[in-house]
Amino acid sequence: MNALYRLTFFLLLLSLPLATQAQKKKSKAQLEKEKKENLSRIKEANRILQQTKKQKEASIGQLNAIKEKITVQKGVISNISREIHFIESDVQETEGIVGALQNDLDRLKAEYATMVYAASKTANSYNKLMFLFASDNFNQLVRRMRYLQQYSEARKKQVEQISKVQTVLSGQLAILESKKQQKQNLLNKQLSENKNLLTLRQQQDSVITNLSKQESNLKQEVASRQESVKKLDKLIADIVREEIARAARAARAAGKASSAGAGKVTLTPELALISSSFAGNKGRLAWPVERGFVSQKFGRHNHPVLKGVVVENHGVDIQTTQGASARAIFEGTVLTVASVPGMNNIVMVQHGDYFTVYAKLKTVTVKPGQTVKLKDVIGTVYTDSDGTTALQFQVWKNQQNLNPETWIARLQ
Fold first, then answer.
1. What is the DSSP code (8-state) at residue 142?
2. What is the pLDDT of residues 34-70, one digit of tens each?
3. Single pTM value for the model
4. How big is the chain by its Cα radius of gyration, in Å?
5. Which one, of 265, 280, 299, 279, lies nearest residue 398 by Cα?
6. HEC string for 247-296
């Protein structure tokens, strides 16, 4: 390949293929977004952890906060690993360009040296004249004059090409050195973050050890919670059944046949629209608190400390900061406000044939029959004696219990 063409090729390589470059930019932009999210989550987990430490040396709330930090820390390390992968890919590409440009530069210099040597034989005016006057005829004389002129121009172009290649090569070498330094910085950061992860795991082990010494108290807490869960479940079931019956009576009174099956809410056109909109926003619904993390997931899972003890959660526990507000995740109507021992104040909001439940509230700022809009404050989250502030949040469709994490968006 001609050296000038090769130079042009590598200049184009810096921007092509466009799809690959665009994909890299998108991936790097995603890494930056994840990095900011991780920093925000770590900051929030630290705040929550400090608040729980003020009340008690070791608690489930502390353990949850440390686990959240460990999860985020793993994300930080994974993010750095992906950054290193991108840098390594860039380094390999740049090294390939540098190697090819270096070969071109060597070839151009060798060609120029040959041209200079050949030109030296006719360097003086006498030799040039002898070359011209040795022509057999006028046409040959003209051709030789053109040859000398073109040869002189070729040497100038060769010098220009050498200069261009040297400029591009210097730029690529600077980029390569910068990329290598970035990689080394990331490797150092990765090592530091791995040490932080080890420290967090040691803190987790220490809290678990301390909590294990409180086994009898923990078992009492589990039993008390399960009893509270049963009472809450009964309350929700009774309210949903009552609403199903009320809607059916209203439909009959209006002379309309119920379009809903047994165990389902009879929807008016207005409620059907809200229900459809709620369902259509699955996975994108707002969080019931502004900040926090899921400290206890939906369904059955092992207790974090007690061996052989399985706990069941019909919603999710979202641990947050003291004084945090609970918010409506979607427009709807407050169906009931109640109180359950162990779950404190309860607010239930209807969204057609969907229901959202907000439990463990310290205060409530809404009343039954009130219409709420997206992110309207419905109360403040309760903080227990251990300093743990956690909202119990549930989602139902008629009498079916749903996993809230599949409905709400990722916390921003």
1. H
2. 877 877 777 777 778 777 766 666 788 999 999 999 9
3. 0.74
4. 37
5. 265
6. HHHHHHHCCCCCCCCCCCCCCCHHHHHHHHHHHHCCCCECCCCCCCEEEE
